[in-house]
TrEMBL record:
It holds the Pfam family ArAE_1. It is a multi-pass membrane protein. It comes from Peptoniphilus stercorisuis. It comes from the Bacteria. InterPro entries: ArAE_1. Keywords: Cell membrane, Membrane, Transmembrane, Transmembrane helix. The chain crosses the membrane at residues 12-33, 64-82, 88-108, 129-153. This is Uncharacterized protein. It is found in: Cell membrane.
Amino acid sequence: MKIKNIQFKQTIGMRVIKTALAVTIGLYLSMLFNLNSPIFTSIASITSMKPSFAESFKDVKKRMFSSIFGVSLGFILSNVPVDDYIKPFIAGFGIILVIYILQVFHMKEMSLLSSIVFTASFLSKSDKLIYGVNRIIGTFLGIIIGVTINYLISSPNIYEDFLNSARKTTDICLKTCEQLFLSTKDFDFYEFERAYTHTEEIYELLLLEIDTPFHGEINLKLSTDIIKLLTEIYLRLHLINNISKEPDINEDNRQHISDLYKYTILYSGNLSGDLNTVYNYHINIIFKNINELQKLIGVNNGKRRKQVNSTKKI
């Protein structure tokens, strides 16, 4: 079988380097403290290396709880006095209990890790109490290493990521509005929707980052104002996108379009009455929000676009 399209031009990112460094330090410290399960220190180091410091910090409590719970349950169930051929059924029951308890505590994402910890503790041939203590220490050590390295070395700048994403979303919004209002055939509302959703997700990470003890400088008011404006634009665009008829753009909005895109609208659409009034109202608010976004995040679309006149039908 031939393997095609293999490329070795991919760059090694900083997160990969930080993960490798965390594993290396974890293994050395496991040797130093004579831990009998260095693999779990490595696992904790790897899984704690999140795209943002906030995510890494948020997972500390969950990982420690799932580790301690898995080790403790494995230790308890392994000491149940039953014949060896019954023990696999005990292990299966333990897995069900692990997953159920974590779901109750809204930590379903930790089920896999906790199940592995439980199984390792349950099947350990060494002194189970010593093994459990070593396992917990190793996990705690790995988490601390991963979180510390993620913070100290090229810590992800979520605030800057949010601003960059907001700029990109605003730029896509401008293109989307141009396509919609000028009735171009390549209109794609979902490109803006995807960009907006991504920016919203980064904003949620930003809120988590503020709750961490060592976050960088964050202008929360500016970030909140930006996401509110983008959200309002998204909702209004989503609404008018469902109107099939072409609107009759009023004079005020024609001027907005001329200022933004350097287009002159010469034709009117077939939408009329209250629905056309509502359409123009939403367009007007969208343009005002776009202008406000440009002021907040420094997007100057007029300099980028080619200045032409359009006689396309609206």
